[in-house]
Amino acid sequence: MPSLAYLHVDGVTKRFGSGRDRVSAIENVSFDVREGTFLSILGPSGCGKSTLFNHIAGLMQPTEGDVTIGGASVIGKPGQVGYMLQKDLLLPWRTIEDNIILGQTLHGTSKRDAIAQAAPLIERCGLKGFERHRPHQLSGGMRQRAALLRTLLTGKDVLLLDEPFGALDAITRLQLQMLLTDVWQEMRKTILFVTHDVDEALLLSDEILLLSSRPGRVLKRFFVDQPRPRTPEMLADPAVASLKAEIMSMLWKEVRRDEPC
Ligand code: ADP
Ligand code: MG
Questions:
Q1: Residue 195, exposed/middle/buried by CB under 10 A (0-12, 13-18, 19+)?
Q2: Lower CB count within 10 Å: N or C terminus of the chain?
Q3: Contact by Cβ (8 Å): 13, 63
Q4: What is the mean pLDDT of the chain?
Q5: Helix (H) or strand (E) run with residue 192 in it
């Protein structure tokens, strides 16, 4: 049933170091996500967004709290989710095609089946003809497209995307945003998406979680009640513009609180 809460982040606190070097990265973060939701996480730089993702990915032990997916704790159990970072992390010695199907083949899909599954998406992403190229022969936008496909094809129901388009130019970014929403609608994955770009969050998300400056706490959850498929013109809609103003104002207050100028 795709309407039940599926992923729970329950009172997660993370402190690094000890004594005078102690850093509190996130503090009592709780939220839940229904299956198939596109949730963006916004917050000032350094507020603990990547730390939060590392917990959901099972890569980091919380000081307090728990994360469950489908009712089972993922703490200490990496490999339950697909995870994509800003840096594409493609393996330089593998072809683009072999990079794209890496997640599938690691999980036991035969190379032949993996390629058959990937081929329509490779074509759709404009990477057809580049399957045999190595990552260094492609532009940054093409590499990021390949990394996105690899993440989408991992077969995981939950995908964590940590500022995946942050380093791209505006047009390439828009192309990838539209590609991601199209494919997400077809695949009905649950996506958690970290961004510092409010327009990007509005354009892509069903819901937006706003975090405070460090230590990151949940400030507010916003619902982007707009039809899909989304288009960039949506940002001019008065309801969206007013949501943007509210988010910007809260975000700005947080940034000022953190680093008064
Ligand atoms: P964001 O992704 O929101 O920019 P991060 O989650 O990367 O923030 O970092 C949040 C805070 O936690 C920062 O102050 C950072 O220096 C600290 N931090 C993150 N990872 C570690 C670590 N492994 N050891 C010590 N401090 C860390
Ligand atoms: Mg980060």
A1: buried
A2: C
A3: yes
A4: 92
A5: strand 190-194
- Neighbour tally for 194: CB within 10 Å: 23
- Whole-model pTM: value is 0.94
Which residue has its alpha carbon closest to ligand 1 atom 25? 16
Side chain identity at residue 109, one-letter code: T
CA 79/CA 138 separation, integer angstroms: 28
Ligand nearest to the CA of 59: 1
CA 160 to chain centre: 4
- Comparing 167 with 92, the larger pLDDT belongs to 92
**DSSP letters of 50-119?**
HHHHHHHTT-S--SEEEEEETTEE-TT-TTSSEEE-SS----TTS-HHHHHTHHHHHTT--HHHHHHHHH
pLDDT digits (tens, 9 = 90+) for 20-72: 999 999 999 999 999 999 999 999 999 999 999 999 999 999 999 999 999 99
- Taking a 5 Å cut-off on Cβ, the residues next to ion ligand 2 are 49-50
Distances from the Cα of 25 to the Cα of 110, 148, 197, 215, angstroms: 41, 27, 21, 5
CB-based pocket (< 6 A), ligand 1: 16-17, 23, 25, 43, 45-51, 214
What is the whole-number distance in angstroms between the Cα of residue 186 and the centre of ligand 2?
28
Atom of ligand 1 nearest to the CA of 194: 2
pLDDT tens per residue across span 105-138: 888 899 999 999 999 999 988 899 999 999 999 9
